[in-house]
Amino acid sequence: MKKKILITNDLVFGGGVEKLMYDLVMAWHEKYDITVMSYKYDDRFYDVYPSDVNYLSESVPKEYKSNVFVHALSSLNRRYYDATIVSKIESMGFDAMLCMKDGGTMWSGLKYNIPVKYAWNHTDYNSHYYTLSTFGSAEAEVEAMQQYKNIVCVSQDIKKGVCDVIGDPGNLIVKYNPINVENILEKAKEPVVDIDSLDLPKDAQPVRFVSVGRLNEQKGYTFLIEACKALEDEGYNFEVIVVGAQEEWGDETRRIDEAMRRTGAKKIKFIGGRSNSYKYMAIADWFISSSIYEGYSLVSQEAAVLDVPLMLTDCSGVRELLGDSEYGIVMPINVVGIYKSMKRVLDNPELREYYKNKIMERKSIITYQERIREIEKLIEG
């Protein structure tokens, strides 16, 4: 009889966490009886996930919202459905739960009575401690973490950040996210047809930097805009292509638009979200990340799989991948640091080949099946 696994997250689609969830489901859906539950219902679920995966949502469905008696008080509405979903989960007899995200997602998982529970932490609390409003105190968050068998940190820096900021709950482990190498290599073969500079003769094409990530404050895109404008004013032949959709919440898109208008930067282009970001990475001379904080960036590892040399701001996990700029360029997290690093590679084009060879050497640590097996051991006990 297959083990029954509940995998929970706030979103179905989005960024690195959602990629991790998808990769785990795709690796396991034939072996385990899997249910995915998101906070927000997403009607695109079965456009991507296989039909043998069950899908639930914690959000209050329309039939509850439309009921005049239930809708009389919004708090009653929420509690009424919460009780229903908790009862449903307990009746389904899950053997294990994987809660894919820290903060509110981990907090929400506390209410489910499932024999073995794991929660992931992707946030470096030394750089971005955001969970105080969720748990009320560091002590309360530590106590919440202790209700899980393990808290799975995606890098050593994440583990250190938790211990430094809220204390050690005693059950932290590090498991690196699996990277589906074959899938990346296959998708990267798809031609890119919407980047005008590709139509130029090869020797006339600009040095191409590619960045991939949602348009949120975390990604530091306003830093990148400022750095690009300074280099543009100095006459360098380059372009920056940013692949990423705007988020439904927050106002980072507005700040990006304002920075573009204020600086008049022309050589950085935000092309929006794309279903296949790998083909854009594949045409890059350099992959660049201007992030202010990260966990252990999935997209940077994906670029490494494609042998694209890396320029990454000094977030958690970066030195675990690049060392002290041994396998790629580690940049300070500020406009000047990004500007100087970009200027350096533009002034020294031979660095591209050097760091391409170094990341080809380093990418052997980026695995799929081995990392999947390491996580699977948690379920198998």
Structure description:
One of its GO terms (molecular function) is glycosyltransferase activity. Residues 200-358 form the Glycosyl transferase family domain. This is Glycosyltransferase. Pfam families: Glyco_transf_4 (PF13439), Glycos_transf_1 (PF00534). Residues 15-182 form the Glycosyltransferase subfamily 4-like N-terminal domain. This protein has 2 domains: 4-59 and 95-178 and 367-380, Rossmann fold, CATH 3.40.50; 181-365, Rossmann fold. The strands form 2 sheets. A 7-stranded parallel beta sheet has the order 3-2-1-4-5-6-7. The protein has a 6-stranded parallel beta sheet with strand order 10-9-8-11-12-13, with helices on both faces. It is an alpha/beta fold and 381 residues long. It has helices at 16-28, 45-48, 62-65, 74-91, 104-109, 132-135, 138-145, 156-165, 181-187, 221-233, 252-263, 278-282, 298-305, 318-322, 335-347, 350-362, 369-380, and strands at 4-9, 33-38, 54-57, 96-99, 116-121, 150-153, 172-174, 207-212, 238-243, 268-272, 286-289, 310-313, 329-331. Helix content is 41%, strand content 16%. Helix 10 (221-233) packs parallel to helix 11 and helix 10 (221-233) packs across helix 15. The protein is built from 17 helices and 13 strands. The radius of gyration is 22 Å and the shape is globular. The two termini are 16 Å apart. The longest helix is centred in the N-terminal third of the chain and has 18 residues, at 74-91.
